[in-house]
Write a structure and sequence with these properties.
This protein is α/β, with parallel strands linked by helices. The chain contains 5 helices and 5 strands, in the order βαβαβαβαβα. Strands 3-2-1-4-5 form a 5-stranded parallel sheet, sandwiched between helices. Bound molecules: adenosine-5'-diphosphate.
Length: 151
């Protein structure tokens, strides 16, 4: 059976840290579906269609990576797309506390879904979408942190 992982996130924006999780995940899974959550309560900084295009551009040579948008429970969407795994990255203990809770809840919702965590590469650990947004807002160069170009 094809091993399919659903990689959910806000990806506002998608960073080199996220790209690394996808690339490393491809060694474990046959297909990775990147799910951009479109939580209507949370106003995005970068337009979702722009980020969608940039992620697709980043992985244009790899048909194993696809991108979807969703506004629903992550576990339900993962199952809808035929995933057996949820993929997440762990940078530090703060991530761990949060991810631990979410994965327990997802387990309650769908026992058949296994959450798999990849520990961040040390050089990418300081990268967060929040910091990239902040840098961009004040006109700093964000190109070291994202795997594509944004002005
Ligand atoms: P969310 O809003 O759901 O936390 P994010 O877009 O911030 O979504 O992150 C999606 C996933 O990517 C999370 O599992 C997060 O821990 C992970 N992640 C974020 N930044 C990095 C990074 N620099 N290296 C590895 N994983 C990361």
């Amino acid at each position: 059976m094809k091993k399919i992982a659903f990689f959910p996130g806000s990806f506002d924006p998608f960073t080199k840290g996220h790209a690394d999780i996808v690339e490393r995940g491809l060694k474990l899974f046959d297909q990775i579906i990147i799910g951009i959550g479109t939580n209507t309560n949370k106003k995005r900084y970068f337009e979702i269609d722009r980020i969608d295009l940039e992620i697709k551009g980043t992985f244009k040579d790899d048909p194993r990576v696809t991108v979807v948008h969703y506004d629903d429970l992550t576990a339900s969407v993962a199952l809808k797309y035929g995933a057996q795994f949820i993929l997440r990255g762990l940078r530090n203990t703060t991530d761990f506390e949060y991810e631990n809770t979410i994965s327990q809840v997802n387990r309650q919702l769908a026992k058949e879904l296994e959450t798999v965590f990849l520990i961040t590469a040390p050089e990418l650990a300081p990268i967060s979408s929040t910091i990239v947004r902040e840098l961009h807002k004040f006109g700093a160069d964000i190109s070291p942190y994202i795997p594509y170009k944004i002005d």
